[in-house]
Amino acid sequence: MEKFVNPMPEDELKKIWKIAAQNWRLPYWDWANDSNVPELLTKPRVKIVDTVDPFGKNPLFKEVDNPMWRFRMPTGKPMGDDSHGDYKINYVDGLPFDLCVGTNRYGLTWKDEKRSWVEGTSNTAAINAATSKHDWPKAQNRNDTIKDAVVRLLNPAYSTSYEKFVSTKYVKNTGKPEDYLSLEFIHNNLHDWIGGSDGNTGAGHMSSVPVSAFDPIFWLHHCNIDRLLALFQVINWSKWFDKPQHGDKSPSDDLVPFRTGNTNVFYTSNSVREWWNLNYTYPDEGAHDNLSGLAKTVNQLYGEDTWKPIPGSQLVAKDGNDYIINVVYNRYALGGVPYKIHFFIGDVEGHPSIYSQQQNHVGSIYTFSSSYESNGEVHCQNCKDQAKAGILSKAQVPIKLALQRQAADEQVPNFTSTAPQVVEDRLQDHFSWKIVLNSGIELPASAFPDLKVQVLKGTKDSDPSGFSSFGGYVPLPRATQGKVGGGNIQYE
User: Fold this and answer.
1) How many Å separate Cα 164 from the centre of its chain?
2) Is there a contact between 358 and 348 (Cβ–Cβ < 8 Å)?
3) How far, in Å, CA of 131 to CA of 136, rounded?
4) pLDDT in tens, 261-313
5) Residue 138 burial (C-beta neighbours within 10 Å; 0-12, 13-18, 19+)
6) For the segment 235-250, what is each residue's pLDDT rounded down to a tens digit?
7) Is residue 70 within 8 Å of 100, Cβ to Cβ?
8) pLDDT digits over 30-64, tens only?
9) 323-357 as b/e, with b when 16 or more CB fall inside 10 Å?
């Protein structure tokens, strides 16, 4: 911003532009509150204010390529060109990002004979479909299910610690069932929904760890992750780093390569804990000591209306019953190659590439990982170390809304209630999971010996004016009994 302003003539107009540059902050996309891609990111070209008429003080516009629609290599050469030296991109997990000059969102597909994905393109409709009718439990209102996940995550009674809130890392025999939901898990799925990960139906840079940050939308996504972390901190200020375990960072460790103004000093987690000292805040933080006010804000953005009855149905949504799928999985089971675990309540139909579009699909887990080693070359030493140490991951898919939808559907036989006995009966006969690579190839659950899938029933006491109470989660063993990958997860 300042580089744009500095060459301007020294006058009153420059002072205005300078203030604007100093006040500019990175925008965020709150995909849980509004699942549609921000308009700024949907157009290949945009009009911007070039300068201002010095006489009439009216803005003068010009049309330019939109830098938020895609990133394009400044050299015009593919990302894998040898001229980029150590920074060149290799063929990543079955997708030719090395041949791309520009970034893609659902644009990289084998069906594109013109190979428009080389220059980079974006399918906004596909992103909106994935984020608003995404492959978590399909509720009656577009993105209600991701709202449900976020409002749980920000609830001070749902995450018992900072580590459980931020990380998918699984620690055996610790925490409580609620702790299997994490910000990292939601973050991982958004990377997949925004970018697309299947070369058959459309893939993009956001779904791949080595290249995701090339896409400008990455920064709006991560700014929102930072915002949700800030909200969690305001609500749970006493919760901070737990005791470090294998491979864990401490809050005083250097955050390489992020340096402070002093080029010899790196930021640490402790030094950025009070983010307002970095000269930015978020509009919905409110007063740091006003917990009831924060609860009202969170509920207004993401809250209680997600559990309302389906229009035209006699089903009572707020019956107090809650249902979740908790999962332990190994993201390095295939050497880091990414995969999805899809969950279904009902018949499974269609090709694996379109599992998420099926009526009975109720959720998924995306590992958002990448091969840590190929041809003897290590791409991620930390990943390799975690794999060697047997570090596993955890995730949670809330399914109350999916069960509610099915119970209200007259075409679903013998299921008209979300009472525990009725739900367990249905899950015993109709609950299943499938594991699929980004290529659309399905693998048997037996190939993932660390996988544990567990369904639990709990209670929710709704409080529209405050934070709702969750608890009392107990396993529904018949839901997974006799199914490969079904297992018993131990908690504290």
Assistant:
1) 16
2) yes
3) 10
4) 877 899 999 999 999 999 898 988 765 567 778 888 888 888 755 555 555 55
5) buried
6) 998 999 987 776 688 9
7) no
8) 999 998 999 999 999 999 877 766 666 677 889 99
9) bbbbbbbbbbbbebbbbbbbbbbbeeeeebbebbb
